[in-house]
Design goal:
By secondary structure, this protein is mostly beta strands. It is 8% helix and 23% strand. A two-stranded antiparallel sheet has the order 1-4. Strands 2-3 form a two-stranded antiparallel ribbon. The structure holds iron/sulfur cluster (SF4). Iron/sulfur cluster binds next to α1.
Length: 60
């Protein structure tokens, strides 16, 4: 099962992912954290890989 992964070397803390997908990302200490991985289905959220302007989000 693929779940979102954040590369903290790339994340700039812009908050875009948490704004677009609040069910799966939460801002904490100026970085995004992945939440609710048990509910994530990539086929239901295809835009999740495109939401980060810094390409910090991948699937793991
Ligand atoms: S959209 Fe990308 S850069 Fe912005 S908070 Fe999310 S992971 Fe970080």
């Amino acid at each position: 099962m693929a779940i979102p992964n954040i590369d903290y070397g790339l994340c700039q803390g812009c908050g875009g992912c948490a704004e677009a997908f609040p069910e799966f990302f939460k801002m904490r200490d100026d970085k995004a954290w992945v939440i609710n991985t048990d509910r994530f289905r990539v086929e239901e959220n295809p835009g999740i890989l495109l939401v980060c302007p810094y390409y910090a989000i991948s699937l793991a």
